[in-house]
Amino acid sequence: MTMVFTQELEFPEHQVERLMKGLEKQSTIKVENMVYYPYYFFEFDVSVKTVVGLQGKTACTVDALDGKCALVDVFPQLIQYEIEQDFQLEIVIAENEAKKAAKYFISENISKKVKFLKVPKIKFSSKTLYYRPFWLISLTKYKEQSLIIVDAISGNYHPL
Fold first, then answer.
1. Which residues, including other chains, have CB under 8 Å from residue 88's CB and lie 6 or more apart?
2. Where are the domains of the chain?
3. Which of 16, 17, 93, 157 suits 10 as a labelling partner, its CA being 20 to 30 A distant?
4. How far apart are CA 127 and CA 4, in angstroms?
5. What is the DSSP code (8-state) at residue 74?
6. What is the pLDDT of residues 6-41, one digit of tens each?
7. How far apart are CA 140 and CA 138, in angstroms?
8. 148 near 137, Cβ under 8 Å?
């Protein structure tokens, strides 16, 4: 067991099962287990010299498996939770690599949205590693089995 930061479930097992049964009426649904997907959350102080001047904070998540970045409006509400290591996906992207990717991603986004007089100053502020919970669901339809992963926070689902 490992203590990690994660998010409180918005979609517990019984809700996910009901949601999937509603969408896949002719399938047999089985909730296999929960997996925890690693993300880095980076926050930066930004100062941009424009005609009016801009200062503030911006944040970005980096997928710790493939390095994809996404802008984040709000810091995720995290709790400490003990999880079994078998259900914790292993980190592939090192923290320093993720931090560089996040800073570059923030810089690129600023340059696309704001006309500036000088290169923006982007200063690292904080970092948190957290694990987002996902349900692993098996669907059986006409003797064909497939796997679906359901985000336990948003309810979004994707085939595997």
1. 2, 4, 35, 36, 38, 131
2. 2-159
3. 93
4. 14
5. S
6. 999 999 998 988 888 887 778 888 899 999 999 999
7. 7
8. yes
* pTM, rounded to two decimals: 0.85
Q: Is the CB of residue 53 less than 8 Å from the CB of residue 46?
A: no
Hey, which residues does 50 pair with through a beta bridge?
none
Residues 89 and 130: their CA atoms lie apart, in Å, by: 11
Query: Which tokens in the block code for residue 136?
Result: 């692993």
Interval 140-154: pLDDT, tens = 888 888 889 999 999
Nearest to 45 by CA among 57, 55, 35: 57
- Residue (of 152, 160, 159) closest to 19 by Cα position: 152
Put residue 157 in one of left, alpha, beta given phi > 0 → left and psi -120 to 50 → alpha. Answer: beta
Q: Between vectors from CA 93 to CA 89 and to CA 94, what angle results, nearest 5°? A: 115
